[in-house]
Amino acid sequence: MWTQGWRDRTWSQLDSKWDLIVIGGGITGAGILREATRGGLKALLVEAEDFASGTSSRSSKLVHGGFRYLKNAQLKLTLESVGERERLLSQGKGLINRLGFLFTVLKTDPMPGWVFHLGLIIYDLMAGHWSHRSYDALDMRELCPPLTTPDLRGGYRYFDAQTDDARLVLRVIREAVRDGGTAINYAPAIELLRTDSSGVCGVVLRDAAPEGDGRTIEVQAPVVISATGAWADKLRTQIGQPARLRPLRGSHLLFPSQRLPITRAVSVMHPRDGRPVYAFPWEGVVLIGTTDVDQGPDLQVDPAISQVEAEYLLEFVQRVFPEQELSFEDVITTFSGIRAVVDTGKADPSKESREHVIWEENGLLTISGGKLTTFRVMARDALHAARQRLPDRKAFDRHLPVLDPVFEEADFSTYGLKPPEQLRLYGRYAADAPELLHGAQADELTPIEDSPYLWSELRWAARAEGVHHLDDLLLRRVRLGLLLPSGGLAQMARIRAIAQPELGWNDARWESELERYTSLRQRAYQL
Known about the structure:
32% of the residues lie in helices and 21% in strands. It is α+β, with helices and mostly antiparallel strands. The strands form 3 sheets. Strands 3, 4, 5, 6, 12, 13, 14, 15, 16 and 17 form a 10-stranded mixed sheet that branches. A 6-stranded mixed sheet has the order 7-2-1-11-19-18. The chain has a 3-stranded antiparallel sheet with strand order 8-9-10, with no helix packed on it. The chain is globular and about 65 Å long. The chain starts with 5 loop residues before the first helix and ends with a helix.
C-alpha cells in the first residue's frame, strides 16, 4: 500500500464512478472515509497537502472527554467525548493511552475548588466509573515533586488519555484503504463541479506532488463532503456562501523531560485569565499547552507561535514549577494548530462552542468544528446527513469498532522487543506491524536517540506510507521534527542512508528536500 508507483496507479483510476468524495485528509475526513467503506460505498478522500498536515498533526495530543467544556455547559459534547474516549482506549491500545491528570487548586484561582470537584463528579458519572479523588497540597507535591508553587492549596486526580494524533489519522486512513477506500495526498480540489441546477456534483483535482506535472482531472460523485476544518469557508465561498467560521490558533511548547520530570499531566487555571492550561509527558518530552487566540484571515498550513503566546505558556510553567527555573532556552520545539469554531462574535474565543456543525448548501455538505476525540461521531453524522443522496440510502452499523482489531497475541520476541514496545508498534501500525518488523535491517529495531521511534519505523514510512516531502517523514510519520532538539538534523546522515533509497530520490532531490525541511522548521517550529 502506497509504495513506489502507487500515485500514478491511483491517479489513473480517479475518473471512475464514485459514491462519495471527501475533501480533507485530517481526522474528520479519515473517519468519514472509514465509515463509508464499512458501509460498502466506493469512497475517495483527497487532501491538498499531506495526510494530517493541518490541525490533525498539531493538536494537543489529548483524547479527552472535554472536562473544561462543562464550565460552558456543553454537556452533549462532553458526554459524546467521554464515550468516544472510552471506546478508543479499549480499541486503540498502544496508540491511545490512559493519562493521569492532577488538577491543581491555587490561591489565585477565580473559582473555588469545590466547583471543579462537582465537575469531576459529573465527568466520572458520564464515563460510568469513579476515578477521581482529592488531595491536599502535601500529597499533590508527593505525587508531582516539581509542583513547587507556593500558591498550591491542593487538587484533584482524574484520568483522560493521549495519542499520537498524526499516527491515529494514518491508521484510520490505511484501514479504510485496506477495506476498499481510496486516498491520495497532495491533490487539492481547485474547483467544485456544478450541475445545470447549480448543485455540486464533483471536483477538479490538481496533482501537487513534487514529482507530478500539475495535471488536473475532473472527478464526479453524487455526494461531496468538505471536511477541511478551518479552511472550510474557502470552498463554501465558491458556491456563494458567506464565511461562518472563526479560526483559532492553539500553540504549544515542548521541553526536555529531564528539565521537567513529570509522570502525569498537571492542569492549572492560568493565573492571568483563568483558562485551563497543562503540562504532560508525551513521547519522551513534556508538552505545554495550549493557547486560544484568533488566527485571523491568514490560514497558513504551517502557523507559528507568537511571542505573546510563548510568554503566556512560559508564565504558567515558571509559576507552577518555579524551582525548575525553565526558560525559553530550554524549549526543544514549538508547534501551532488552527481549529475552527462557528463565529458567534463572543469577545473571548474560549467561550465559542466546540461542538461540530454540518451545513448542506447547494449540494456541498460541510462538516467543521468538533474535536479529535469525537471524529467517529462526526463522521457518522456527516454520512447520515448525506444519506438521501447515497446509493440505496445506506445504513451504517453503529456497533462496529472505531479501529480494526489487532492481534496482540502474535509473538515478536525473536526481534528482542519488550511487550510494551510490541504493543506500541501494534497500536500505531496495526496490520502493517508484522511487515514493518520483517523489513527491518540490522540494528534498526533500536530507538532513534531519546525518542520512542525505531529506525525500522523510519524505513517503513519511507517505503510504504505515501511520503512526498521530507517534512512528511519527520514531522508526521516519525515525529522526530518535534521530539529531537535539532529536529533530526544531527541524525540526518543515517536518516538519509535509510530513507533516500526507499523514496527513490536522487541527490539533488534530497538536498532540495533538506533545505525545505530546515527552512520550515525554523519558520514554524522554533521560537
